[in-house]
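Okay, can you check this protein?
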Amino acid sequence: MESLVVLIPALPLAGFILTGLFGRRLDKEAHWLAVGVVVVSWLISMVVVVAALSGRLGDAGLSIKLWEWIPAGKAFHVDVGFTVDNLTAVLLIVVTTIGMLVHVYSIGYMAHDPGYWRFFAYLNLFMFSMLVLVLASSFLVVFVAWELVGLSSYLLIGFWYGRRSAALAAKKAFIVNRVGDVGFALGIMAIFVNTGTFEIRESIEKLTAAGAVLTVPLPVIALLVFAGAMGKSAQFPLHVWLPDAMEGPTPVSALIHAATMVNAGVYLVARTNLLFAHAPDAMVVVAAIGIFTAILAASIALTQTDIKRVLAYSTLSQLGYMFAALGVGAWAAAIFHLMSHGFFKGLLFLDSGSVIHAVDGEQDMRLMGGLSRKIPITYGTMLIGSVAISGIPPLAGFFSKDEILASAFKNGFLWVWLVGFIVAGLTAFYMFRLMGLTFWGPSRVDRQVEPHIHESPPVMTGPLIVLAIPSVFLGLLIGFPPESGLIHQWLEPVFTDGLEVLHRPEAAFNVFGIDGALVLSSVLIAAVGIAVAWRLFGVELPRLSREPDPERVRALTARAPFLYRASLNKWWFDDLYDLLFIRVGGRVAAFLWWFDRVIVDGTVNQIGIETQRAGRLLRQVQTGRVQNYALGIALGLLVMAGSYLVITAR
C-alpha cells in the first residue's frame, strides 16, 4: 500500500518531467503521456481511497516516512512523509477525478494551440503539487507543495503570456498569494517554536495539550494559518486575484476552481481543525470572513457579462460558504460542500469552455443567446450544474449547502445563517441569468459566427456527461440522510476530537422540526431566485445588442443605481487596491529607489571618491627619489625643531 501511495503524486511528476523534456518532439501526441500518467494515478488513488474509507487503514490512517530531509541532530529534523486518512481520501477523489477529466477535456480544447505540449506539462505539475499538498504529513512539506501550487497556477494563468492581460493576471495571482503565504510561513514558524516539530499531527497535539506553555497565543497561530488559506482560497480581502485568473485557458479555470488551488485553503483549515477548536475567537473570524466573501462575491456575480467571470465569482461565493462552515464547526459539511462543489463547478467551467468553443471564442453573454438547440449536450449538462449549485433537491448542491446553513443556525450563528440564506437566493438568480443570456431567447451571436455553431467533439462532451452524474447523485449517495450520511461516517474519525472540544456532537436530522423548516426555506428562496431570473432573462430579449436586458430590468436597476454600479464595478476593490498598492506603492517605491541611489549610494560612493582624491594627492609626494625623501626628512626636522623653540621660548 505504501508504494501505491507514493505513486499517486510520482506519476504526474514523471509526466511533467518527460513531457517537458520530450514534449516538443511529441507535439500533438504529448497528451498520450500526460493524460496516461494521470489516468493511472487516478486508478491507484481509487484503490487507496477504497482501503481508507473501508477502514482497512484504521482511524489514524497510514503514515509513510519517505526520507529524512533536514537532519540536524536530536533537536531538529524534518522528515518527508505522507499521511493517508479519510480526509486525505476524500480530497484524493476530488483532485484526481476532476484533474483526470480536465486533462481529457484539454485534448479537444487545446488541440490547435501552438503550446499544446507545454500546457500538458504544466497540468501535470499542477496535479503533482496539489497531490503532495494533500498527502504531506509535515507543515514544511505542505508549504513547499503550497508554493508549487502557486507556481503552477502562475504558469497556467499566464499560459498565453503574449496577451498583456494574461501576463498581468498571472503576476497578480502570484503576488496576492504571497501576502497570505507570509502569514502561513509565520504560523508554521510559530508552531515549530512552540512544539519543536513540523509534523502536523504531533505539533497540533502539543499545541493543544493541557498545560502547554506557548510563546505565541493559539488564536494568533490559528489566524496566521488561516491567512495562508485566505490567499489560496481567495477570501476577502485577498479575493481579487481569482476572477482575473480567467485569463488562462478554460481547462485551467476548471482545475483551479474545482480540483486544486482554491480547495487548498479549505483543506488546510479542516486538517488543523483541532487547533481552531481550541481558538474559538479565530473560528468566529473564519466564519465572518467566509460569509462576507460569500455575499460580496454573489452580489458582484449578479451583473457580470463574461460567462467565466460569473462562474469565478460564484466560486468565491461558494468558498465563502465552506469557510463559514469551518468557522461554525461544521467541518464535515464544509468538506462535503468542497466535494460536491468540485464536481458541479468543474462541470460548469468545462461547459463554459464548450460554449466559448462553439461561438468562436466569444465570452460576452450579451452576444450569445439561443444556443440550447445548437449545443444540446452542453446545454443539458450546464442546466444540471446550474440546478445543483442553486441547491435544488435532489441534486448534490442541495444536500451540502443546506447542511452548512442548518449547522450555522443550530450552532447559534444566526447571522451566518441569515446571510447564507440570502446568498442562496442570489446564487440561483445569477446562475439562471447566465442560463438565460447564454441559451434562451433569440440568438444574439454574430451573424458570421452563427452558421458555424456546433457541439464540441466527444473528447470534450464526454467529461461533461461524466461530471453531470455526481452533480446529480452525489448528495443522495453520501449525504443522505442529512448530517449522518456516508460523508459523515467517513470524516468522523478526523473531526471527533475537535467536535468534543467544541461540545457540538452532531445531532440527528429531524425533517418535521427546525431542520425541515430550514430546508424548505432554503429551497423556496432558491426557487424564487430562479423564477425571477426566468422572468427577467428567459424571455423578451432583443436579438442583437450589448444591452440585452429588457425594459423592466433597466427600470429595476434605475431604482438602485449605486448598488448596480457597485456590483458592475466589483465594489471598486480593484480600483482601491490599484490606488493604494500600485500607484501609492509605486510612488513610495520610486522615492525609496531615489533615496537608495542618491542618498545611500551617493554617500558611500562620495566617500570612495574623496578617498581616491586624497590618495592621488599623497601619491604625488611618493616620487621614488632618495634625495627628495632626505629633503622631506630635513624639512620635517626643521619644522619640529622650530616648533619646539617657539613653544619653549614662551
